[in-house]
Design a protein that fits this description.
By secondary structure, the chain is mostly helical. The protein has one domain (2-84). It is built from three helices and two strands, in the order αββαα. 1% of the residues are buried.
Length: 92
């Protein structure tokens, strides 16, 4: 995505770019997710560029069953690997 924006000459900033890769596992909004930001006056142009990029993708990837599979995967990650989520430990 960033390469597409760069090809169109649209400046961008990735919020959480480096921190988001420090903690693998569950993606928690505003904690370890990445957000791409562009100047407000170029937002429509960025949407069009990214829409063009996604129109070239496989249409089967956008099927509802794929989205359900992703939701199930996230729930399983939380249940099976919840111990991996960083937090405070009681060390004595």
């Amino acid at each position: 995505m960033l390469a597409t924006l760069e090809a169109y000459g649209i400046e961008s900033f990735v919020h959480g770019q480096h921190f988001g890769s420090l903690w693998p596992g569950l993606q928690i909004e505003s904690y370890n997710t990445r957000t791409i930001m562009v100047p407000e006056e170029r937002a429509n142009e960025a949407r069009e560029a990214l829409a063009e990029l996604s129109s070239n993708d496989d249409p089967a990837a956008e099927s509802p069953s794929m989205r359900l599979r992703d939701k199930v995967r996230v729930v399983l990650e939380a249940v099976l690997f919840g111990w991996f989520v960083p937090g405070r430990r009681n060390l004595k």
